[in-house]
Design brief:
about 290 residues; alpha+beta; Glutamine Phosphoribosylpyrophosphate, subunit 1, domain 1; 2 domains; 5-stranded antiparallel β-sheet; about 20% strand; elongated
């Protein structure tokens, strides 16, 4: 930390080793936020976040998932007040595009615009980088799309991505379990499993989720009741998978036992033949009968 002294006072100054510490600090803020996930399905896109409500807090209002347009939603991780500023900017950009070109804005255009806004706050003194990363998900004429923007002004397309706390472990989980041909119901169940992977809580009470289907191109919130059904179906599938694996192990064990019995039978047969040879009488000339 002492090596950054003097070079972390402004985002406009590079350190001797080519680093912009203010941007790195903003990235660290994102890592301290709750997990957020974006998944592209064959028939749409899903965004989900972990959001733990207090006892007296209204639970059906999420603070980390936002609707930008009819066909675009955003999930945030990091400093959420910064996210609200960027979301308002994205909404204005989307509506301006609609008025100017008389067509819905593309998901990638919104992601690029937000990345440009984030990048501007790394170029001037007297400002600080936005301490938030965003998952921009939606359906346009090119199909379901997911992009991630970060405080540096970078935006990258993904088919499955996690940002926020424990995102590295969750990303590893997604790399092993996500498949591009998965349908909406499958990715919703996968998102629940991914969030619960490193969460202190289990179930769906702490999960907020939204989706955009390719057929309707409409942003919609997923209810807690539907999330509970997906979680139950996921548990049943996992149980059936375990039972199948157990049956497979039992079959392998039975196969090994059968092979062992076969070997014992062959050994007994050899011993019987050997005993027979030993008890067979010999001719006077020394040869066997």
């Amino acid at each position: 930390m002492m090596a950054s002294r003097g070079y972390d006072m402004t985002p406009t100054m590079y350190s001797p080793d080519g680093r912009i510490y203010q941007v790195e600090y903003a990235m660290e803020t994102v890592k301290r936020g709750a997990i957020a996930i974006g998944l592209q399905a064959k028939d749409g896109a899903v965004i989900a976040v972990e959001e733990k409500s207090r006892d007296l807090q209204v639970e059906d209002i999420t603070q980390k998932i936002f609707q930008v347009d009819d066909h675009i939603g955003i999930a945030a991780a990091g400093y959420i007040p910064d996210a609200r500023i960027l979301i308002d900017n994205a909404r204005f950009f989307s509506q301006s595009n609609k008025l100017t070109y008389d067509e819905s804005v593309e998901v990638g255009a919104v992601a690029k615009h937000l990345a440009d806004q984030a990048h501007q706050f790394t170029q001037y003194s007297g400002v600080r980088p936005f301490g938030v990363a965003l998952i921009v998900a939606g359906v346009d004429r090119k199909g379901a799309k997911i992009f991630v923007t970060d405080p540096s002004g970078t935006y990258v397309p993904y088919t499955a991505v996690a940002i926020g706390g424990n995102s590295d472990e969750v990303t590893d989980f997604l790399e092993k379990n996500y498949k591009k041909e998965m349908l909406m119901d499958d990715v919703m169940s996968l998102a629940i499993s991914a969030i619960n992977l490193k969460s202190d809580e289990k179930g769906v009470k702490h999960i907020r989720m939204s989706r955009i289907r390719t057929d309707t191109k409409l942003f919609e919130k997923v209810s807690q009741e539907e999330l509970a059904k997906h979680a139950q179906a996921r548990d049943q599938h996992a149980q059936a998978k375990d039972q199948h694996a157990q049956a497979k192990d039992q079959h392998a064990q039975a196969k090994d036992q059968h092979a062992q019995a076969k070997d014992q039978h062959a050994q007994a047969k050899d011993q019987h033949a050997q005993a027979k040879d030993q008890h067979e009488p010999e001719n006077p000339d020394g040869s066997s009968k």
